[in-house]
């Protein structure tokens, strides 16, 4: 991750800066239901504006498959972005060509314009060199502030960094620094909480973490597969029984690498999965055949709190149970609050992200109390898997030359 340049390394006054952000925000009935991604990019936009740049905002929205799909226009997002910035923002109905150029030409120093969905052009996701040249022609400098899109080698996330002087925005910078502190150069001991439904989606992640962390806490449906692999009955629980041999291989590999894998001591079971369903706590080795595991139990939650308290660094990806459906949220909430308290006391660096993690931590009321919570899904997961992220690599590439 080392080697990327930031806004501290460039003078943007009088320059036109193309800023790739992630405005792919959730919307319902034309209204944004979660503006976290907007709030995260404000420091970069404010700074560039304050320093006298013409700020040109690039983003995708949805999956229009290279076509101009009206319901996937960024135009409704422009109003929300303007409100968040506290200033009016013109909207250009294309992200390249005369329409975009004309909108940019009208900007004064410090002005901000939002261009239309980059994915309305088929060349965006194909990383088409011709489209990249058209887009690069709009500006003098490129700033990537969209870590959540950094796993995609698209025109606006990767190619532009090879055509213009390229820098990390403040959101990208903060994210990369926390990720580096969490896994690349962590303070040990390091624990990872890995939850979610299926082991099959996180095999690469687990394989990478075995060589990087001291303890892996496994919860959610994933834990059921590991319990089954150990010869325990899991009743009607979600379980990938065909991956039992794979789970046993992971357990053996963990022993070889000196990484402890932690599974729940007790679990919460119910005969049906619905809110308020009758449930009970049983030892993990005594799950009734007619029930399903839907959460970790209180003994497990307390034990995990103790384990995390003995660590200096925590990486969290995925819930420990079916947190969306009470009462099966208790385990995730308890452990998350313990981690948040340790973070607040200065005893723990806690970094979380991916999948349902943000929603789970918000449900627990602690999303703002972790050291850093990433809004990235796929990019965070690929980082955990140890993969190179094209959008990040491009910022450090020799071809991402510094501005004169």
Query: Quick one: overall form?
Result: elongated
β-strand amount: 15-25%
Oligomeric status: single chain
Helix content: 25-40%
What average pLDDT do the residues reach?
A: 94
Uncertain runs:
none
Task: Work out the helix count.
Answer: 14
How far the N terminus sits from the C terminus, by CA atoms, comes to 24 Å
Major sheet: arrangement of strands: 5-6-4-1-7-8
Q: Output the structural class.
A: alpha/beta
Spatial extent as radius of gyration: 23 Å
Largest sheet: 6 strands, parallel
Number of strands: 17
Fold and architecture overview:
- The protein is an alpha/beta fold and 404 residues long.
- The protein contains 14 helices and 17 strands.
- It has helices at 36-50, 75-85, 97-105, 122-126, 129-136, 170-184, 203-209, 220-229, 244-257, 298-309, 330-344, 357-363, 378-384, 390-396; strands spanning 16-20, 27-28, 31-32, 54-58, 91-92, 112-115, 141-144, 166-168, 190-194, 215-218, 260-262, 266-270, 279-283, 292-296, 313-317, 349-352, 372-373.
- Strands 5-6-4-1-7-8 form a six-stranded parallel β-sheet, with helices on both faces. A six-stranded parallel β-sheet has the order 11-10-9-15-16-17, sandwiched between helices. A three-stranded antiparallel β-sheet has the order 13-12-14.
- Strand 15, helix 11 (330-344) and strand 16 form a beta-alpha-beta unit.
- Helix 1 crosses helix 2 (75-85), helix 8 (220-229) crosses helix 9 and helix 10 (298-309) packs parallel to helix 11 (330-344).
- The longest helix has 15 residues, at 36-50.
- The relative contact order is 0.13.
- The model has no long low-confidence stretch (mean pLDDT 94).
């Amino acid at each position: 991750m080392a080697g990327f340049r930031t806004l501290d390394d460039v003078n943007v006054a009088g320059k036109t800066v193309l800023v790739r952000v992630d405005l792919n925000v959730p919307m319902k009935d034309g209204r944004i239901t979660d503006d976290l991604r907007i709030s995260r990019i404000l420091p970069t936009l404010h700074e560039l504006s304050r320093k006298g740049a013409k700020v040109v905002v690039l983003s995708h929205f949805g999956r229009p498959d290279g076509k101009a799909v009206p319901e996937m226009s960024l135009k409704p997002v422009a109003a929300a972005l303007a409100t968040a910035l506290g200033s009016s923002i013109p909207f250009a109905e294309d992200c390249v060509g005369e329409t975009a150029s004309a909108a940019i030409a009208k900007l004064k120093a410090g002005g901000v314009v939002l261009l239309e969905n980059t994915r309305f052009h088929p060349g965006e996701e194909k990383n088409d060199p011709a489209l990249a040249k058209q887009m690069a022609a709009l500006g003098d400098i490129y700033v990537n502030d969209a870590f959540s899109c950094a796993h995609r080698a698209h025109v606006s996330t990767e190619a532009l960094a090879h055509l213009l002087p390229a820098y990390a925005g403040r959101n990208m910078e903060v994210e990369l620094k926390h990720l580096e502190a969490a896994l690349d150069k962590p303070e040990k001991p390091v624990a990872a909480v890995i939850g979610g439904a299926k082991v099959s989606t996180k095999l690469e992640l687990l394989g990478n973490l075995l060589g990087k962390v001291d303890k892996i806490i496994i919860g959610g449906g994933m834990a059921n597969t590991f319990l089954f692999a150990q010869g325990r009955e899991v009743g009607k629980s979600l379980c990938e029984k065909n991956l039992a041999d794979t789970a046993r291989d992971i357990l053996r590999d963990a022993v070889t690498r000196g990484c402890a894998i932690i599974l729940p001591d007790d679990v919460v079971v119910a005969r049906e999965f619905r809110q308020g369903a009758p449930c009970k706590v049983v030892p993990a080795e005594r799950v009734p055949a007619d029930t399903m595991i839907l959460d970790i139990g209180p003994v497990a939650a307390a034990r995990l709190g103790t384990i995390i308290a003995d660590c200096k660094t925590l990486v969290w990806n995925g819930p420990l149970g079916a947190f969306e459906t009470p009462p099966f949220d208790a385990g995730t909430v308890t452990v998350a609050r313990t981690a948040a308290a340790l973070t607040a006391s200065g005893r723990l660096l806690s970094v979380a992200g991916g999948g349902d993690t943000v929603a789970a931590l918000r449900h627990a009321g602690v999303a703002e109390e972790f050291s850093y919570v990433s809004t990235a899904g796929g990019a965070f997961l690929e980082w955990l898997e140890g993969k190179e992220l094209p959008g990040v690599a491009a910022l450090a590439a020799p071809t991402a030359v510094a501005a004169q």
